[in-house]
Amino acid sequence: MSPRTLYQKLLDTHTVATLDEQNVLLFCDLHLMNEYTSPQAFAGLRDAGRTVAMPGQNVATVSHIIPTHPGKVRVIADAASALQASNLKRNCDAFDIPLFDTNDALQGIEHVVAPEHGMIRPGMVVICGDSHTTTYGALGALGFGIGTTEVEHVLATQTLVYRVAKTMQIRIDGQLPFGVTSKDLVLAIVGRIGAQGARGYVVEYSGSAVEALSIEARFTLCNMLVEAGARGALVAPDQKAIDYVMARAPDLAGPHRQAALEAWRDLRTDEGAHFDAVHRIDAGTIAPQVTWGTSPDQVIAIDGHVPHLDQVQDAVARGSAARAMEYTRLPAGAAIAGTPVQHVFIGSCTNGRIEDLRAAAAVARGRRVAAGVRAMVVPGSGAVKAAAEAEGLDKVFIEAGFEWRNAGCSMCLAMNDDVLEEGVRCASTTNRNFEGRQGRGAITHLMSPAMAAAAATAGRIMDVRELKEQAQ
Q1: In this structure, what DSSP letter does residue 415 have?
Q2: Which of 43-47, 235-239, 315-319 has the highest mean pLDDT?
């Protein structure tokens, strides 16, 4: 057999049938659902008189529409959103599908909840009606988003008609400098290859810099590569990944544990395997990143400037840049550092894990949120919230003037009651800075948790590395 990439191995072990040269019928180990992409799928099942083929391999959570205001009982006030949540519960009850409901203590964002409860394991195929399902590649699982019609097909058959992707390797060597995180790294990658740079590809990250990252940092790295159009993002499972999973999967004991370890041993790209595209990056050249426009690839280093239009060679990109400057109210040539902010949001499936909150708390400790700034910290799940409170991180944030909220997607997107008003500029740890993403006319600047916390205390976008210099 010729050398194969990790992606090709995952594909081979999950292909039920080859349909043609480009498409296969793929078995899906786990299907995650949320409240907004599943209602039509369940309706389709009922109309066709079908049932769910494998209920235990489907899991649902209410996350995008849920309010995150402090309090023990959460009530969804918006009637349409409340109906979505109640419909999800009704459907899950009817088809015997596990659900993390609105007031479940462990409720949270699907891409945070699933791995922290041991549902994601190396070698799996995991799908969800949400594009950031690429997150699970951090554990050597092929994760990707699907549409509503595909959700119905998976519920009925636990399989999916899947178009085979091309392969790309992004090799990252060297050491990330002080103050630079996986969020900065992935923003720099998206900026370098462009919003369509990985379109049609499943990407495998490799290199010494990737090996040095924690599993939570790898989640961030895989989560955001969909912003470059990637159909999947993978990291070959190493001992870190195995330890992460084993600590959260008590069912993998005795002979099951040994069988899993043996199966996972082969989950790496063979020597000499071919990639259709290769990128190499020196981690040591990366600085803290901040988006200036309305697409994640419109990003610059913290000491950078908004580009002049004559610097943008491609006509389409030049037009997009011009529109972005008008929307964000930043003129060409403007320095991104020093830009005032009125809001700070720390959370999301990209940066709402305990490691992210620790990084933000380290900056917030002993400081205060600047006058005129509203700052929010929203854990990615109930388990993350409990862990943060056990460490006293909630007290650090509250004493610094941040709002400490309940778990949920919150201000990542304007689908709940955490919505920014027009013209409000937000330093955000989320994954998208599209027009209106956090509220109609609101302006979003993506950055790392530490950078967002620094912006909150300064009242402006600043280089978090300056805080270390000030302390010396």
Answers
A1: S
A2: 235-239
pLDDT in tens, 379-404: 999 999 999 999 999 999 999 999 99
DSSP assignment of 359-402? HHHHHHTT--PPTT-EEEE--SBHHHHHHHHHTTHHHHHHHHT-
More confident residue, 330 or 37: 330
Q: Residue 446's Cα: distance from chain center in Å?
A: 13
Domain boundaries, the chain: 6-278, 288-470
Q: DSSP labels for 54-87?
A: -GGGEEEE--SS----SSSS----SHHHHHHHHH
Amino acid at 164: V
Looking at CATH, the fold of the domain delimited by 6-278 is given as: Aconitase; domain 3 (3.30.499)
What is the tens place of the pLDDT at every residue in 54-107? 999 999 999 899 999 998 889 999 999 999 999 999 999 999 999 999 999 999
Which residue do the tokens 């010729």 mark?
2
**CB-based contact 419:436 (threshold 8 Å):** no
Encoded tokens for 471: 């302390």
* 409 in a known ligand binding site: yes
What pLDDT, in 10s, does the model give residues 276-313? 999 999 999 999 999 999 999 999 999 999 999 998 88
Q: Does 92 appear as a known binding residue?
A: no
Please give the average per-residue pLDDT across 335-362, as a whole number.
98
3-class DSSP assignment, residue 24: strand
Q: d(Cα 61, Cα 103) in Å, to the nearest integer?
A: 11
The full 3-state SS of 339-360, as one line of letters, equals: CECCEEEECHHHHCCHHHHHHH
Taking Cα atoms as reference points, which of 316, 309, 135, 302 lies closest to residue 234? 135
Cα 136 to Cα 124, 177, 237, 330: the distances in Å are 9, 26, 11, 35
How far apart are alpha carbons 359 and 182 in whole angstroms?
12
Domains 6-278 and 288-470 agree in fold: yes
- At the top level of CATH, the class of 288-470 is alpha beta
- Note whether 401 and 422 are within 8 A (CB): no
Strands 23-27 vs 159-163: parallel, antiparallel or unpaired: antiparallel
Per the annotation, does 426 bind a ligand? Answer: no
Report, as an integer, the average pLDDT of 325-330: 97
Mean pLDDT over the full length of the chain:
96
Token couple for 36: 């907004």
CB 343 within 8 A of CB 372: no
Amino acid residing at 126:
V
pLDDT at 472: 43
The DSSP symbol for 306 reads P
